[in-house]
From TrEMBL:
<dbReference type="GO" id="GO:0005381">
    <property type="term" value="F:iron ion transmembrane transporter activity"/>
</dbReference>
<keyword id="KW-0926">Vacuole</keyword>
<feature type="transmembrane region" description="Helical">
    <location>
        <begin position="82"/>
        <end position="104"/>
    </location>
</feature>
<keyword id="KW-0410">Iron transport</keyword>
<protein>
    <recommendedName>
        <fullName>Vacuolar iron transporter</fullName>
    </recommendedName>
</protein>
<feature type="transmembrane region" description="Helical">
    <location>
        <begin position="164"/>
        <end position="185"/>
    </location>
</feature>
<comment type="similarity">
    <text>Belongs to the CCC1 family.</text>
</comment>
<dbReference type="GO" id="GO:0030026">
    <property type="term" value="P:intracellular manganese ion homeostasis"/>
</dbReference>
<keyword id="KW-0408">Iron</keyword>
<keyword id="KW-1133">Transmembrane helix</keyword>
<dbReference type="Pfam" id="PF01988">
    <property type="entry name" value="VIT1"/>
</dbReference>
<feature type="transmembrane region" description="Helical">
    <location>
        <begin position="197"/>
        <end position="216"/>
    </location>
</feature>
<dbReference type="GO" id="GO:0005774">
    <property type="term" value="C:vacuolar membrane"/>
</dbReference>
<keyword id="KW-0406">Ion transport</keyword>
<keyword id="KW-0812">Transmembrane</keyword>
<keyword id="KW-0813">Transport</keyword>
<keyword id="KW-0472">Membrane</keyword>
Amino acid sequence: MAAADSHAQSALSSDAKLAISINDVEKEIRKEPKDEFDYSQRSQWLRAAVLGANDGLVSTASLMMGVGAVRQDSKAMIISGFAGLVAGACSMAIGEFVSVYSQLDVEMAQMKRENQRESINEESKKENLPNPIQAAAASSLSFSIGAMMPLLGASFIKEYKVRMGVVAVISSFALLVFGMVGAVLGKGPVVRSCVRVLFGGWLAMAITFGLTKLIGGIGL
């Protein structure tokens, strides 16, 4: 009799353990999946930073190549490059601030038009709104960083042909780096991004150099 009771208690214990195990499995299944990082949240500052860096690099390098097409002294190239850096950084900051602020006004107006039942999500929606100051600072800083690449490359080289070659090489390398960084942070195709940025920069520098050389050659 005692053996039967012991067997029954053992069976009940096994059933209880099995039930607990099944419950644990069900809880794991019912668990919500972990939130994955939303790469779209990076789009606000990433777009401004990558755009600013590329603009700073391409515009300053193109400006310096254009000046170098008609003037061989390093002083003219450096001064024009520095002026392009300051003017471009200010322009990028102001333009990005105005643009993003306009976008913010539109999105705030849209939030006010939403019906009352969605008001519980208002705080989370506000967190995802564009930040004009952040975008302006990112654009200005990244533009300056991009512009400093060719400017520093030309600052210590007196020989004209070597200086032009260094500006072109440094600019090309920096374009590849910026294209790669933008693709990695945004989880995009690295090779395609690098090629697109590189050829775009080359085209801008070639057009600026060629047209400036043409205008300088005919004396206008």
